Amino acid sequence: MDYQKFILPHIWNLKPYSSARDEFKGKEGVFLDANENALGSGNIAPWNRYPDPMQWNIKEQLTEIKQCSLDQIFLGNGSDEAIDLLIRMTCNPAKDHVIICPPTYGMYEVSASVNNVPIIRVNLTADYQLNVDEICARINEQSKLIFICSPNNPTGNKLNRDSIYTILDKFTSGFVIVDEAYIDFSDEPSFIAELAKFPNLIVMQTLSKAYGLASLRLGMAYANPKIIQLLNKIKPPYNISGATQELVELALANKEFVKSSIETLNNAKKDLISGLNSLPGTKHIYQSNANFILVKFEQAQELFDYLIEQKIITRNRSTVTLCEDSIRITIGTTEENNLLLDKIKRFYA
Ligand SMILES: *Cc1c(COP(=O)(O)O)cnc(C)c1O
Questions:
Q1: Whole-model pTM?
Q2: Nearest residue CA, atom 5 of ligand 1?
Q3: How far, in Å, is the centroid of ligand 1 from the Cα of 202?
């Protein structure tokens, strides 16, 4: 695949910033190169030194967990950073466009808009699947990225794998981005295993959901090493803080927590679904392969307002395309879910 054809020339030819720490790799030494404060950081742990710009320790851990190679991993300050960098790498503002499939994650659109990049919307079908024919029909020379989110947010369902393969086969003049933020909750295999077969594939994941690290801000993009090199070239040199790197390393070592969280939340989801199904106001609960459910309610707006009064915050999706009267509910602890059920019961009583 000739990436040069669809990477913007100024990015392709960019000479990256060379940081002080790029020149010397060792840990021991007298470091007088980066204008840090040699005296320390006050009364807290020493954060006075710049962190590893390439985050090798975390990447080492991820190669084992995700079964990929070091040079296939990019780490961003949340997935949002990877989304933004991919748009800036490929899209000529006001000229090239990205394709998204609403209802879907809002950041694709925001990030494109911030960069003045037009958006083509090809809605999901009524059963929340990809409209493959329509997507393929809308592809032209100005198409640079197609965002596919599976399991999808806010609908919760996984998208048919065959549809994704078809798009990967058809769209070879740009990148197909498969956002797997919720993959850990589903039994679907990750598209990371398909990277060798599809040079136009980029898989995004995050530590914000199943790994329980939303506050640390760490998102991953997995792709062909050539694409990873380009992302590394344009990212801010120290995009992942040293504190985040240390804490993520500790968290990734605790494999039991993630595994048991997924099991606990998936069981709690089943209980919440059966609880909601027994309530009169529940019109429909959509299939979910994520840690949230989308539910169609009678009087959704009023219910949402009532829940806020009760200090239970859900996500009102009533005004979103194809989500009329629907509320997105994150699976909480058993206690939280029961409290929610109790309040909803009261609302309809
Ligand atoms: C939550 C979420 C993310 C994660 O974003 P971060 O910036 O990594 O916290 C990415 N994609 C989707 C679809 C999400 O719902």
A1: 0.97
A2: 79
A3: 15
